[in-house]
Specification:
Strand content: 15-25%
Number of strands: 15
Structural class: alpha/beta
Strand order of the largest sheet: 5-4-6-7-1-8-15-14-9-10-12
Length: 426
């Protein structure tokens, strides 16, 4: 039986928040990206001295100073970062749309790993001091759904709290689930995104043992090199991003910052870590998103690539984009933000999606730093040199955004923002 795909009902983005290696909030992160800064630094803590990889992207500790001391003691850093992003998104949305029934507000906050810092620290406590030294809150601090639950508790929301765990696709999958909840009438507003805090001994050792990380310890700012011929792996980073989303027909005039038109998904069914090398199944996610959005490849003014800087992953995505977009891939500019942010794992999709809508609103696409020299097998119009002006399709600008995760999780989003000068100034 052949089931006809339904055209998605697009949803409005009415608020956002993020914390990243480039900023304490969404605005400062965007400013850092547009300025071409890198958030990747050398690790200087004693715990990192003997590690093979000693670089990462970290959110400055000062970012969490606004959190209550009791909350800091009782939550993992993954939860803390997610709560900071959610508070910012909630405040922005509340100012734009006014009061809303808390019973109709859902939280969908994904993560790739969850409370890895707590797991590592409490295992050390158990090993060094025995069972009596283990924190009684260890389990509720480390479980992946802790961040979504804490956001609902903190903001007093009762419309459901959900946690997609799809590795590096988790944040984008949260945005897909948010659109489903809204289209199905299960919520009137959804706080959706991802959070991750994997920068510790266990996280760095685990990923470096897989040979997934860049080893450029002597050149941190040049280490993350998406689509570059000289790439040697990704850089592990932390952060969080949350978007406030609601049905377009319920959105007050002037409240929409942009829109999520549709989402596509697929699974490689290939390998627990390596992507399917030709990007065949990733192409299905891209094409699914475009069909559900009613968008042709030529309508896109930009692509935001997943592009982590791994040898296999970058080529699989490039092949998928070329297959799905055809000749349009020759001229659609591609932005790979991980060159500046590093890889935020489960938070990457949401933090990057916020950057994508900001780029669409301002009509400018930042360059992909460290991507030169471009791998000749990457047959895409990767923007490497300087910001480029984005041309709109009618009154809106459209972007394709990809997010892929270990295990073959593929998610593609179609995002848009107003193209008029009046809306860009909001």
């Amino acid at each position: 039986m052949v089931v006809q795909q339904r055209r998605a009902q697009r949803v409005s983005i009415v608020g956002w928040g993020s914390v990243s290696p480039l900023g304490f909030n969404a605005a400062s992160t965007w400013e850092g990206v547009l300025a071409g800064r890198s958030g990747i630094k050398a690790l200087t803590s004693a715990w990192s001295e003997d590690l093979p990889v000693r670089i990462s992207g970290c959110v400055p500790d000062a970012a969490t100073q606004s959190l209550e001391p009791l909350l800091l003691r009782r939550s993992d850093r993954c939860t803390q970062l997610g709560l900071l992003a959610a508070r910012e998104a909630w405040a922005m949305a509340s100012a734009a749309i006014g009061a809303i029934d808390a019973a109709r507000v859902a939280v969908v906050l994904g993560t790739g790993i969850g409370g890895l810092h707590t797991m590592h620290e409490q295992h050390n406590q158990l090993t060094a001091g025995g069972p009596s030294r283990v924190n009684p809150l260890t389990v509720p601090m480390l479980i992946p759904d802790a961040a979504a639950g804490q956001v609902a508790i903190d903001l007093g929301l009762h419309g459901g709290a959900h946690t997609p765990v799809s590795a590096c696709a988790s944040g984008a999958e949260a945005m897909m689930l948010a659109q489903m909840l809204l289209n199905d009438g299960r919520a009137d507003l959804v706080l959706a995104g991802g959070t991750e805090a994997p920068v510790n001994r266990l996280g760095l050792v685990g990923f470096s043992a897989m040979r997934a990380l860049s080893c450029r310890n002597d050149a941190p700012e040049q280490a993350s090199r998406p689509y570059s011929k000289t790439r040697d792996g990704f850089v592990l980073s932390e952060g969080a991003g949350v978007l406030a989303m609601m049905r377009e027909e319920d959105t007050p005039n002037g409240a929409a910052l942009g829109w999520q038109l549709a989402c596509g998904s697929s699974s490689d069914g290939h390998h627990i870590v390596a992507p399917e090398p030709q990007g065949t199944q990733a192409s299905l996610a891209i094409e699914d998103a475009l069909r559900r959005a009613g968008v042709d490849p030529g309508d896109l003014c930009a692509i935001q690539a997943h592009a982590t800087g791994t040898s296999l992953g970058d080529l699989a995505e490039a092949r998928a984009l070329r297959r799905s977009l055809g000749a349009a891939a020759d001229h659609i500019p591609v932005f790979a933000p991980k060159g500046q942010l590093g890889h935020l794992l489960g938070a990457a999709g949401a933090v990057e999606a916020i950057l994508g809508v900001q780029a669409l609103r301002q009509g400018v696409l930042p360059p992909s730093i460290n991507s030169e020299p471009l791998d000749p097998e990457v047959e895409l119009a990767v923007n490497c040199q300087a910001p480029v002006a984005l041309l709109g399709s009618g009154s809106e600008r459209l972007m394709l955004k990809n997010a892929f995760g270990f295990g073959g999780h593929n998610v593609s989003l179609v995002l848009s923002a107003p193209g008029s000068s009046a809306e860009q100034q909001r």
